[in-house]
Amino acid sequence: MTRVLVVEDDPQLVRALIINLHARQYGVDAAPDGTTALRLAAAREPDVVLLDLGLPDMDGVDVIKGLRGWTRVPILVLSARQASDEKVAALDAGADDYVTKPFSMDELLARLRAAVRRTEEVPLAPGATLVETADFTLDLRAKKAVRGGHDVRLTPTEWHLLEILVTSPGRLITQKHLLREVWGVSQSNKSNYLRVYMAQLRRKLETDPAHPRYLITEPGMGYRFEG
Asked: Of the N and C termini of the chain, which has fewer Cβ atoms inside 10 Å?
């Protein structure tokens, strides 16, 4: 059974999430604040975390940082905060996805399924486990990136997006395909997710992120990896 840790201080929303998750055979633990969330995460080792940023005892970004100190569990942020810099702060801290309140339960569940799917071991084609370029090396099986002799930390979402691109070198991967595979959605209005994550990947891997050599944008269509 997939276990979900819900970190939210709104009792009505917690109740709705528990009902919907239980109906789909998920196990659920709930925490009303960050301190309880970190304690429960260590004790129960959830498969995915749904996290509100506006908690009574600490900022949700601090909870993300606390979790990322020891686990790669997928973290889906739930928040009413609209500012893009706050979303980027949560993603930079290690969140895998960001769902703005109010949200539809169907969309949230699709994102949750996609987050869990990203953590499952995907069989790789022979020879596709190691990707070497002049600037960085990716070991897809070990999920390890090295650039300039130093390890590069990538979130599960960044890894999943990168895997899709590098295992089909030179091929244009459409925005719709990436959104469906990585986030479980295909609406074109979610393309901002791709922009944020591709910018993060370029910042971590490219020598000149503003003029990428490897992670190429095809305007209006999608992205491709040039090895």
From this structure: N
Strand 130-132 to strand 136-139: parallel, antiparallel, or no bridges (unpaired)? antiparallel
Distance between CA atoms of residues 64 and 50, nearest Å: 11
Q: Which DSSP symbol is given to 32?
A: S
Distance in angstroms (rounded) separating the CA atoms of residues 166 and 159: 10
Q: Which residue has the higher pLDDT, 136 or 184?
A: 136
Task: Give the torsion through C-alpha atoms of 54, 188, 209, 71, to 10 deg.
Answer: 40
The model's pLDDT over 140-169, given as tens digits with 9 standing for 90+, comes to 888 899 999 999 999 888 998 999 999 888
Give the containing element (helix H, strand E) for 98. Answer: strand 97-100
**Which tokens sit at 192?**
């901002």
Buried b (16+ CB within 10 A) or exposed e, 79-117: bebeeeebbebbbebbbbbbbeeeeeeeebbbbbebbbe
Taking 70 as the threshold, does the pLDDT of residue 126 lie above it? Answer: no
Question: Residue 59 — pLDDT band, cuts 50, 70, 90?
Answer: very high
CB contact at 8 A, 96 and 156: yes
Rounded Cα distance between 116 and 193, Å, is: 18
Within 10 A of 185 (CB to CB), how many other CB atoms are there? 17
Tokens of 70: 């020891």
Q: Does the pTM of the predicted model rise above 0.85?
A: no
Mean pLDDT of 71-99: 83
CA distance 7 to 36: 9
